[in-house]
Amino acid sequence: MNIPPIHIKTDLTNQDEKTTIQEATKEELQLLIATMERELASGEFFTSHKNYASIDLGKMPLLIEAANNKHVGLNLNFVSNPIDLPSEIVRAISNGKEQFRYVVNMGESGIHFAAIDCKMVDGKLSLLLMEPANLNSMGPAMLAMRVSSCLKREAEIIPKPHFCIAVMDIQRSNSECGIFSVGLAKKMFSERAPLDALHEEILSERLPDGMKCDVLEGEALDRLLPPTFYKHAQSQRRLDQYIRAHPDGNDTPVNKKGELLLDRAKRLMVPVDEKLISSSIHQKRIMEYSAISDDGKSV
User: Fold this and answer.
1) Are strands 76-79 and 99-105 parallel, antiparallel or unpaired?
2) Which residues are catalytically annotated?
3) No. of helices (H) and no. of strands (E), the chain
4) Gyration radius (Cα) of the chain, Å
5) In whole angstroms, what is the distance from residue 186 CA to residue 69 CA?
6) Where does the record locate the signal sequence feature (predicted)?
7) What is the pTM of this model?
8) What is the pLDDT along the chain (299 residues), one digit of tens a residue?
9) Helical segments of the chain, H only
10) Contacts of 214 (CB under 8 A, 6+ apart)
């Protein structure tokens, strides 16, 4: 796909320059969306040579802004390096926030995102990190270790933090961790009831206290979460694991169309290299990018 160069004038007033940059950004987004749609239609979406993780990193502030504009009270922020997380948490607490969220990147040495839900309860702070992939890969393991290390190092400025990692294991592709994390952050907001119950578990004696890093995964996690958290899972096997742990997980609609989890997954599964892979998260990226392209406040 030949992308024409975008020329920006330099002899402009501040307002004109801002408008021109917005137009250039909108054009860039529209070209990206067109590429995504073409790859989705051709089946190239899972093997694309475009580095969408890097593209998502550059667009993450816009994605976060659009999410906050749409979901009042989401309180979602982007942290590009775990080293900045403690100060961001302190700032949120100082501003009177009782529940707030982050999409956090692993930092200088690479790109991997996860979502964090924070809740203050009786002066104690519960942090739940939702890892879209699993901890067997370098990126997710490094991110989890860095977040835990930064929280321990700054324990004096954060009130009694309790940290838990929820290993979702729904990501199978290489570049979709950012979009998964934005989606999980939104879901932690819209599905607050099970999340609040999980925070209570984290803060109770049922899970270790203090700064020990707990890990919830597999059946233990699947029993606690509703099916909407799994709607973008890329593997049919992972969905089957969830239903075994949560037998009524296919009884509740997961979207506005009223589709059940497995019916929706079946509709979006496509053959890739002799395997069935869900195109759901790739369609989700198109929707997220379309939102920031169409929303003038976000561009």
Assistant:
1) parallel
2) 112, 131, 177
3) 10, 8
4) 20
5) 12
6) none
7) 0.88
8) 444 433 334 344 454 444 444 665 888 999 999 999 999 988 888 877 688 999 999 999 999 999 999 999 999 999 999 999 999 999 999 999 999 999 999 987 899 999 999 999 988 999 999 999 999 999 999 999 999 999 988 877 887 788 999 999 999 998 999 999 999 999 999 999 999 999 998 888 565 444 446 899 999 999 999 999 999 999 999 999 999 999 999 999 999 999 999 999 999 998 887 888 899 999 999 999 999 987 533 33
9) 14-42, 52-70, 85-94, 138-153, 177-190, 192-203, 218-222, 236-245, 261-268, 280-294
10) 163, 164, 165, 202, 207, 208
Q: What distance in Å separates the CA atoms of residue 29 and residue 289, rounded to the nearest whole number?
A: 7
* Contact criterion met (CB below 8 Å) for 154 and 88: no
Closest CA to 184 of 136, 125, 123, 133: 133
DSSP strand pairing (124-131 vs 113-121): antiparallel
| Tokens linked to 108 | 């200088």
Angle subtended at Cα 67 by Cα 298 and Cα 257, rounded to the nearest 5 degrees? 120
Residue 188 lies in a domain: yes
How many separate domains does the chain show?
1
Residue 262 structure tokens: 């497995």
Of 234, 233, 194, residue with least CA distance to 216: 194
Q: Which residues contact 80 (CB under 8 A, 6 or more apart)?
A: 57, 60, 104, 105, 107
253 occurs within a structural domain: yes
6 within a domain of the structure (yes/no): no
CA–CA distance, 84 with 80 (Å, rounded to integer): 8
Domain residues for the domain of 158 are 14-298
Choose among 201, 265, 250, 254: nearest CA to 229.
Answer: 254
Query: Is residue 2 domain-resident?
Result: no
**Which run of H or of E encompasses 96?**
none
Gap between the terminal Cα atoms of the chain: 24
